[in-house]
Design a protein that fits this description.
The complex is a heterotrimer of chains A (306), B (234) and C (290). Chain A has a single domain, classed as Orthogonal Bundle (ABC transporter involved in vitamin B12 uptake, BtuC). In chain A, 78% of the residues lie in helices and 1% in strands. A two-stranded antiparallel ribbon of chain A has the order 1-2. In chain A, α3 runs parallel beside α5 and α12 runs parallel beside α15. Chain A starts with a helix and ends in a 6-residue tail after the last helix. With 234 residues, chain B is an alpha/beta fold. In chain B, α4 packs across α5. The relative contact order of chain B is 0.18. Chain C has one domain: ABC transporter involved in vitamin B12 uptake, BtuC (Orthogonal Bundle), CATH 1.10.3470. The chains are: A mainly alpha (306), B alpha/beta (234), C mainly alpha (290). Chains in contact: A-B, A-C. Chains A and C meet through α4, α5, α12 and α14 of A and α4, α9 and α11 of C.
Chain lengths: 306, 234, 290
């Protein structure tokens, strides 16, 4: 298995590395967005796929990262790579503040608290106009950096996937899964579930924070509605559920399949496409709760790392 | 000698119902204790209070002389309390061996070896890499039992180990429990099957409506009037 | 800005009126949670359907929104029962993650169906736009009527739960489905009726706010969150707790919009939620753990 997978991975990564030298501007932009979705879906999987604590507001970390980065660039003139990392740090801090109280709650409470968090952050960003530009948005100085951002975004996508691999193959990852399977039993076996959940939550916030920062730099302009968009949380969730939650490659598969179909067909029918997302969630939950890879994994007794 | 477990005046109520009412117990090392009583007499609640799943309203719980009431369940588990549940609580989407591995600390290879060894003692070595959710009821019960032993707990709480288990399996389980005692571990078990309780336990506590109404060797308990009354009504 | 006792009095009364509405809508969410241990994320979007139904009854048939309300409730009962029977029933006994995701999917589908069917144009029902002035306090007529009707409907729901056979069966099922089953209660039927009832309450909420706010497909989401907040404040599955939670949320919102700004009142409610969950994870009145 390893002997096939590793060379194949190397080939794909090499192809992606040389891609900008041969591709059109549209191609690079599309791939950059795909990287973003891989990173977002993979991050959501770390908390929700592994521990079963569903975050309905994970895009809040993306938004927090985007605003932190944009402020660092526009107001304090930081170089963008540093600013994007600061976006990741900001998202982790937010996760710490929110996660400490909210992760003590059982599943549904946590889920809705996260939904609320996103709404509240959007309201706060709109309110503090002096700092954030409020509803009219925040512009960054112009800078042509699509290619470097392509590589940065790709690096985050790879990092998130590698992190997922490292976690899922570790004792830490198994313990996160025990929280999903039976939290009471996990505690009775001596597993400090609160600390494990918080750690997973922080790790799951870092990726979206950095990606949000790169997104802000790439767009050159952000405003609250499109930065704290519920539809983006929905998209991450659909990608992970479709591909297979709790697996390494499920979020990647989900991101590729759904992003490509979104680009090819659905983008022309915005509401139909979201309606389909809703329908996919319902269908996956009812008919294929493990997702595509989850089903293969169970049927052919494959490891979680496929 | 300091008792392994001392429960002192424990009270726990839900709403208006007092599930555990001023219960005191003393458990010495290297013995098997039984906890019996009619349905709803507070046995599982008492277990939950000892293991930190529920927080008692009053009273103390001491492990080897150290107060543990108010500690979270995982800390109490790390102090050497293992338990199984009335309804099996394994991790179905983890393999049998992973169910045991999550409990371990330190060296991974050594942990793997120990986990497989423990599974072998309950004759499950061939199913070690099967998802626990795919195992039969009895096999899951054994996985839960083996998982509980991973930390080598000094005090073992078993909630109805005999329920739903066939004869052969039951005898294996009972032998395993005796083996624990012979290694100096202390066992407290909730059980409805009186034959099991009588054949296994040195001391039996009887709960009724949350109160401890009797305590003593099985033979003595059987003749106690309050116990007969609690079971058969007046 | 100085705050006069006059303003405070106004805030308290508006808070209670709004709170009654919150309580009624949240009672629906609480019932579903109590009976099925499901948090229905689609509760707000179902309320949105109720508002659209009121709009079309008013503009299409010229039906007075308050007379349309019982009709909306009946229709929404049917919608709820159908959603439960066809979809939710399949995951009630699955891990809660499944039902949470399922109702999330239903919520997204409903909102976007509404976008397709009704477009995202902002609509309104102009009815009773004036205010009453009593002793120096001004009250928008629609808000007063909404508050009073919400109290009446909530009281009706409690009478139903407390006095009728069916209502008692619902409460028994939320105490313990196993015991209910043993007592000969058809638990599947009770679950369907409960879901229908909850949707009827959401629909009533939609009908009542249709005359107060802009009607558009995305109006519902915030109601999922508010209803959830109410049941957290009052204790999940604790039905009288929803009343207290509703009034409390109404008061906090009104007070914070007076002291800060309306925009921040949502943030204040959120902080309140987090604080309550930190101090009393089972709600102020205490509820049942999930």
């Amino acid at each position: 298995m390893r002997r096939v997978v590793l060379p194949a991975l190397a080939v794909v990564l090499a192809a992606l590395a040389v891609y900008p030298t041969v591709a059109s501007g549209y191609g690079v932009r599309a791939m950059l967005q795909l990287f973003m979705w891989v990173a977002l879906a993979g991050s959501w999987n770390l908390i929700s796929g592994l521990t079963g604590y569903v975050s309905f507001g994970h895009i809040a970390f993306f938004g927090a990262g985007a605003y932190a980065t944009a402020l660092a660039i526009a107001r304090w003139h930081w170089p963008w790579p540093v600013a994007a990392l600061a976006g990741g740090v900001a998202a982790c801090l937010l996760a710490l503040v929110i996660g400490y109280p909210c992760l003590r709650l059982k599943g549904p409470y946590f889920a809705i608290s996260m939904l609320g968090l996103n709404e509240v952050l959007r309201a706060l960003v709109s309110y503090f106009e002096g700092l954030t530009g409020g509803g009219s948005g925040l512009s960054l100085p112009t800078l042509e950096a699509t290619i470097p951002i392509y590589y940065a975004m790709g690096a985050v996508a790879v990092a998130v996937t590698a992190l997922a691999y490292a976690i899922i193959t570790s004792r830490f990852g198994l313990r996160l899964m025990t929280i999903r399977e039976d939290e009471v039993a996990a505690e009775a076996m001596g597993i400090d579930t609160a600390r494990h959940k918080l750690a997973a939550f922080l790790l799951s916030a870092a990726g979206p924070g950095i990606v949000g920062g790169l997104f802000a730099r790439d767009q050159g302009f952000i405003e609250p509605l499109s930065t704290f968009a519920l539809v983006m949380t929905i998209t991450m969730i659909v990608m992970v559920l479709f591909g297979g939650k709790g697996t390494v490659w499920g979020p990647v598969l989900g991101a590729v399949v759904l992003f490509v179909s979104q680009e090819l067909v659905w983008a022309r029918f915005p509401y139909v496409h979201q309606l389909l997302f809703g329908a996919i969630i319902v269908a996956v939950v009812l008919l294929m709760p493990r997702g595509v890879l989850g089903v293969l994994q169970q049927r052919y007794r494959l490891p979680r790392t496929i | 000698m300091t008792p392994v477990l001392e429960v002192d005046g424990l009270v726990k109520s839900f709403g208006g119902v007092t599930a555990v009412d001023r219960v005191s117990l003393r458990l010495e090392a290297g013995a098997i204790y039984g906890l019996i009583g009619p349905n709803g007499s507070g046995k599982t609640t008492l277990f939950n209070c000892i293991t930190g799943v529920e927080r008692a309203d009053a009273g103390r719980v001491l492990l080897d002389g150290r107060r543990v009431d108010g500690l979270p369940p995982w800390r109490i588990a790390r102090l050497g309390v293992g338990r199984t549940f009335q309804t099996i609580r394994i991790f179905p989407e983890l393999t049998a061996v992973e169910n045991l591995l999550v409990v371990t600390e330190g060296d991974w290879e050594a942990a793997c070896a120990r986990a497989r060894e423990l599974l072998a003692t309950v004759k499950l070595e061939r199913l070690a890499d099967e998802y626990a959710g795919n195992l039969s009821y009895g096999q899951q019960k054994l996985v839960e039992f083996a998982r509980m032993l991973m930390r080598d707990p000094g005090l073992v709480l078993l909630d109805e180990p005999a329920a739903g288990v066939n004869r052969t399996l039951l005898n294996d389980l009972l032998d395993a429990v005796r083996a624990l005692r012979d290694r100096g571990r202390t066992v407290l078990l909730v059980e409805h099957d009186m034959k099991v309780v009588m054949g296994l336990c040195e001391t039996v506590f009887v709960l009724d409506h949350g109160e401890k109404i009797a305590e003593g060797p099985p033979g003595f308990i059987q003749g106690d009037e309050r116990v007969i009354e609690a079971y058969f009504g007046r | 800005m100085t705050i006069t006792p006059q303003m405070l009095g106004q805030v308290v009364i508006s808070g209670i009126l709004a709170g009654a509405l919150y309580a009624m809508v949240a009672l629906g969410l609480s019932l579903i949670f109590g009976v099925m241990r499901v948090i229905n994320v689609a509760h707000g979007p179902l309320l949105m359907l109720g508002a659209f139904a009121t709009y079309f009854l008013y503009h299409g048939l010229g039906l007075n929104p308050y007379l349309g309300l019982p009709l909306v409730m009946v229709v929404m009962f049917g919608v709820g029962a159908l959603v439960q029977r066809t979809l939710v029933a399949r995951v009630v006994d699955a891990p809660e993650l499944q039902s949470l995701l399922l109702t999330f999917g239903i919520a997204i589908a409903l909102v976007n169906l509404a976008q397709l069917a009704f477009t995202s144009d902002i609509r309104s029902v102009e009815y009773l736009t004036a205010s009453w002035t009593v002793g120096g306090f001004a009250f928008s007529k629609s808000r007063v009527i909404a508050g009073v009707l919400a109290v009446a409907i909530t009281a009706g729901a409690f009478l139903f739960l407390g006095r009728t056979r069916l209502g008692k069966a619902i409460r028994a099922t939320s105490q313990s489905p196993d015991v209910a089953l043993v007592c000969g209660i058809d638990v599947d039927r009770i679950r369907m009726i409960t879901f229908g009832l909850a949707c009827a309450l959401a629909g009533a909420g939609g009908a009542l706010i249709a005359v107060m706010v802009a009607i558009q497909p995305e109006m519902g989401q915030i109601w999922t969150f508010k209803s959830f907040l109410v049941i957290v404040l009052g204790g999940a599955g604790n039905y009288p707790g929803a009343l207290l939670g509703g009034i409390l949320l109404g008061l906090v919102e009104q007070l914070s919009s007076l002291l800060l700004t309306a925009q921040l009142s949502e943030a204040v409610s959120y902080v309140l939620l987090v604080l309550v969950l930190l101090v009393r994870p089972t709600g102020l009145l205490g509820g049942r753990a999930t």
